[in-house]
Specification:
Elements lengths: L1 H5 L2 H10 L14 H8 L2 H8 L16 H8 L2 H7 L18 H7 L3 H8 L16 H8 L2 H9 L4
Length: about 160
């Protein structure tokens, strides 16, 4: 996990190959190596881990936030892209414990480039609601993010 968090794909690869570490094992704060790499913004490590046969790309951490949501709210676009490509990929519709989707997290944190990327995907449910019934647009309004609101409006998303 330390190698994943620090962005050292060669060390991660060595540990996976020679030490056969349990790829979904979590640490003291319940984050897996994949979550650590997503939070830290390490796309090369994410891509490497996603190639592992037993990887669980949606395994939530202590905050019950899947790696994709962690990367989206942190603004790590390359990690978001890595998590959504290939055979083993994260579920873009999966929310956290409160139903907050990766799109909503990006909106809440004002990460316009991630919002734009996610809205360009066909598999993103823009009408999904969190446990309080708020949509991504409602979050943009609540956060007062005019740039994201303009972007959402220009796409005709309600």
């Amino acid at each position: 996990m330390a190698a994943a968090k620090a962005g050292h794909p060669q060390v991660v690869q060595l540990l996976l190959r020679d030490w056969r570490v349990e790829v979904n094992r979590d640490n003291y704060d319940s984050h897996t190596a994949l979550a650590q790499a997503a939070i830290a913004g390490c796309p090369a490590v994410v891509e490497l881990l996603l190639k592992e046969e037993d990887i669980e790309p949606d395994w939530p951490g202590a905050d019950l936030c899947p790696p994709l949501a962690c990367a989206a709210k942190a603004g790590h676009l390359e990690v978001v892209k890595a998590l959504l490509q290939g055979e083993t990929r994260a579920d873009v519709r999966l929310g956290d414990w409160d139903g907050v989707s990766p799109l909503m997290w990006a909106v809440r944190h004002g990460v316009c480039h991630v919002v734009e990327f996610l809205l360009d995907r066909d598999d993103v449910d823009v009408a999904s609601q969190d446990s309080d019934g708020r949509t991504a647009r409602m979050w943009a309004e609540e956060c007062g993010n005019r740039e994201i609101l303009r972007f959402i409006d220009s796409r005709g998303i309600g």
